[in-house]
Design goal:
Mean pLDDT: 83
Strand order of the largest sheet: 3-2-1-4-5-7-6
Order of helices and strands: HHEHHEHEHEHEHHEHHE
Low-confidence stretches: 1-35
Shape: globular
Radius of gyration: 32 Å
Helix content: 40-55%
Structural class: alpha/beta
Largest sheet: 7 strands, mixed
């Protein structure tokens, strides 16, 4: 065999018939280039194909979320009466005296709007007890006035709204509130107005704020020590962060979750007037900054509340 001569069998790497021998090295170079280019191109093609499949997967996920999102809005706006006709919370025919206990001005609009809308639309007598003026930034008097304006949007009678500015109940993450003091204040309100239903935060308090949790334990203290036997108490269920910012999508999950529980233990209350929540929160002008605007738009608490009975 001469220098650079190569013997081949069958076909070359491009699929064409190969010459049996070559003495000038041209075939060797052409074969090497074809082989090298094919194996370099293969990973690129595989990468492009994989990227395309990933894009299609993400597109399907996004489209599915959008479809369910739109369906959730349709459930709220297009079929509100059929949706609400299935609800059984406080539907025994009696008009109740309900006390909603919150920690700060704006709690009622950020977290409890669906509950407030449900109660007022059914003619229940709703009282609001706010245990601080929210003076963490020195705007307590401003925030107190904002709360009254927000309650007017929510159709809560202003004479049934009480805001405290107690020296031992000041707003702040480092401020621990005395549960005995809270229980005593709640007891006074309950007996003063003939309250038979209490509603407040659960122990986590939706956002994890310590004042929210203290309000919960204050209500529990009252229930344990001195509450009338015929009083009902309900807590707003805190949910994980994915559900919390899923907007109206959480209506389906909350409804399924309540249906899995024994009857009368948990209630899912959708908000058929979510735009009212935004209008009410906008009355808290000192707090109506960009991230709270996003919260009201995307928080599931704007669209649905799940209440669990406190035992």
């Amino acid at each position: 065999m001469k220098p650079f001569e190569i013997k081949t069998k069958g076909t070359d790497f491009l699929g064409a018939n190969a010459t049996k021998s070559s003495s000038n090295g041209r075939f060797e170079v052409a074969a090497f280039v074809a082989w090298n280019s094919r194996f370099k191109a293969a990973p690129v093609l595989l990468s492009l194909r994989s990227s395309g499949e990933n894009c299609m997967g993400w597109m399907l996920i996004i489209m599915s979320i959008l479809v369910v999102w739109v369906a959730s809005f349709c459930k709220i706006f297009l079929a509100p009466f059929s949706f609400q006709s299935k609800l059984t919370f406080l539907t025994d025919g009696r008009k109740r005296n309900v006390l909603l206990v919150v920690a700060h001005p704006d709690d009622e609009s950020m977290f409890f709007s669906p509950t407030i809308s449900y109660l007022t639309s059914r003619g229940h007598n709703l009282y609001l007890l706010c245990l601080s003026v929210g003076d963490a930034d020195g705007m307590g008097s401003i925030r107190k006035d904002e709360l009254y304006r927000a309650c007017a949007v929510h159709k809560i009678k202003l004479q049934q709204v009480k805001v405290l500015d107690h020296p031992d109940l000041q707003d702040g993450f480092g401020q621990v509130w005395n549960h005995d003091l809270l229980a005593k204040i709640i007891e006074e309100e309950v007996y003063c107005h003939g309250i038979d239903v209490l509603i407040t935060f659960d122990s986590y308090g939706v956002s994890g704020h310590c004042n929210h949790g203290d309000v919960h334990y204050g209500v529990r203290k009252f229930l344990h020590d001195s509450s009338p036997r015929n009083i009902e108490a309900w807590e707003l269920v805190s949910i994980n962060i994915l559900r919390k910012y899923s907007g109206p999508l959480d209506i389906w999950l909350s409804n399924l979750n309540s249906l899995r529980r024994p009857r009368g233990v948990m209630h899912c209350l959708p908000n058929v007037h979510p735009r009212k929540s935004s209008r009410a929160m906008a009355e808290h002008s000192s707090q109506w900054v960009w991230f709270r605007k996003l919260f009201i738009s995307f928080s599931s608490y704007t669209y649905v509340n799940t209440l669990r009975k406190i035992k």
